[in-house]
Specification:
The protein is an all-alpha fold. Helices cover 57% and strands 0% of the residues.
């Protein structure tokens, strides 16, 4: 699932667990981070973008359209690139996703149920479960996540792949919000220098 990076040496599972601040989109929140993103080298930009969506083509395309005049333009470019993913691009992106994780205060029973549901989903569809969850308490998030996995397990492969692609697009948007927030907070010009993201393996 894409619970976020949600994050480790692979594309973080942002899907399921986005920091609250990453959901805001004010100019104050994103302005300086967007400017820093625009100033990254092409290699650094592609590297951090691969943590937002694991498609190499997506990352190259979003990086190539810099500089972005505002955060809305960045999101529009990311959406356009997401809608244009080929089946091979989508497979690459889904292969880089990890199953969603929950906060440590989730109950042991909930974690066991989630592990079992993730395993069943991966067996059926061949990739991690991707979802962009709404904010909520740990209990609400557990219920939302388990209900979503169980519902989507009933889909046929083509239908589920289409849903996963749309959730991946939403996750990429959320991760871009997180990225601009982190770049706003960092002191310096390079995301890699400040450990914003580990290298994609």
């Amino acid at each position: 699932m894409a619970v976020h990076p949600r994050h480790a040496t692979r594309s973080p599972p942002l899907s399921s667990h986005l920091p609250a601040q990453a959901r805001g989109s004010s100019a104050l929140h994103h302005g300086s981070g967007l400017a820093r993103f625009n100033d990254l080298s092409p290699e650094s930009a592609r590297s951090v973008l691969l943590h937002c969506c694991g498609s190499t083509r997506w990352a190259q395309r979003v990086a190539a359209h810099r500089p972005y005049p505002d955060y809305g333009a960045l999101l529009a470019a990311a959406d356009e690139a997401s809608y244009d993913l080929s089946q091979a691009d989508l497979s690459e992106a889904l292969a880089r996703e990890s199953s969603a994780e929950l906060e440590h205060d989730a109950s042991y029973a909930a974690l066991l149920a989630l592990d079992a549901a993730h395993a069943e989903y991966a067996r059926k569809f061949g990739h991690a479960f991707v979802i962009c969850l709404d904010p909520g308490t740990p209990e609400e998030r557990v219920d939302q996540l388990l209900a979503a996995i169980r519902r989507r397990l009933g889909h046929e492969a083509d239908e589920e792949r289409s849903i996963a692609a749309d959730e991946l697009r939403r996750v990429a948007q959320a991760r871009l919000a997180d990225l601009t927030h982190r770049l706003t907070s960092a002191e310096g010009a390079s995301a890699a220098e400040f450990g914003l993201f580990a290298p994609v393996g």
